[in-house]
Amino acid sequence: MLKILLVDDHALIRAGLKQILLTGLGKAIIAEAQNAQEAMTLVQKQPWDIVITDITLPGRSGLDLLCEFKHLRPEMPVLMLSVLSENEFAVRVLKSGAAGFVHKEASPEELVRAVKKVLAGGKYVSQSLAEKLAVQIGKPDVDHPHKKLSDREYVVLTMLAAGNSLTHIGKILSLSIKTISTYRSRILEKMQLSNNADLTRYALKHGLVD
Predict the structure, then answer these.
(1) In angstroms, rounded to a whole number, what is the distance separating the alpha carbons of residues 164 and 95?
(2) Alpha-carbon distance 146 to 132, whole Å?
(3) Nearest to 208 by CA among 149, 151, 115, 146
(4) Edge-to-edge strand order for the sheet containing 29-33?
(5) HEC assignment per residue over the chain
(6) pLDDT for 67-96, tens place per residue?
(7) In the beta sheet, which residues pair with residue 103?
(8) Residues 126, 110: contact at Cβ < 8 Å?
(9) Does domain 3-136 have CATH number 3.40.50.2300?
């Protein structure tokens, strides 16, 4: 029987995803983890046909988990979920080894399509992103400043640009305000920007936030 691991820190989200998958895929064994530590324990115990994980988990992020999963079980496909803009983030996670990216505002039918494609050995991005990537083929690869950021810095950038306060970001990522402030300083320095308003303008211009 198909074995699926769901990783999300919100019980209601996990319950909704579980119902969508059981309806769309039929019978399956679906386990749940609410953080990176629980997820790693379950993956260490046994392989899974697919792991579906949020990116913005408390403590270690879904991106951190992705790297650990690929090291521990290289053949296990990982589908990433997020409310973050897919324009840049989907490409970033695919380059890191993810099997696909689904925005949390996607329809239940799209999630099921994504899971089926990944289980069949394919990679999944939305139709709209696939069209954008197709248009970009052949264009020179511009080295934008945000590409210098680490995965964690990139997450903080998108959350700052979306108008989230340091306190709120820290709460979501289970990090101190001081740590988030340090990330913010690094981001501004690497991107040669002055303040949050500059970050927001940059992110909107480059499609990093919706």
Answers:
(1) 27
(2) 19
(3) 146
(4) 29-33, 3-7, 50-54, 78-82, 100-103
(5) CCEEEEECCCHHHHHHHHHHHHHHHCCCEEEEECCHHHHHHHHHHCCCCEEEEECCCCCCCHHHHHHHHHHHCCCCCEEEEECCCHHHHHHHHHHCCCCEEEECCCCHHHHHHHHHHHHCCCCECCHHHHHHHHHHCCCCCCCCHHHHCCHHHHHHHHHHHCCCCHHHHHHHHCCCHHHHHHHHHHHHHHHCCCCHHHHHHHHHHCCCCC
(6) 899 999 999 999 999 887 776 677 778 888
(7) 82
(8) yes
(9) yes
Whole-model pTM?
0.80
Token pair of 112 as six digits: 């099921």
The CATH architecture of the domain made up of 145-205 is Orthogonal Bundle (1.10)
pLDDT digits (tens, 9 = 90+) for 137-187: 555 556 678 878 888 888 899 889 888 899 988 887 878 999 999 999 999
Per-domain residue ranges of the chain: 3-136, 145-205
φ, ψ at 59 (rounded to 5°):
75, -120
Q: Which residue has the tokens 């903080």?
A: 156
User: 3-136 and 145-205: same fold?
Assistant: no
Distance CA 140, CA 60 (A): 34
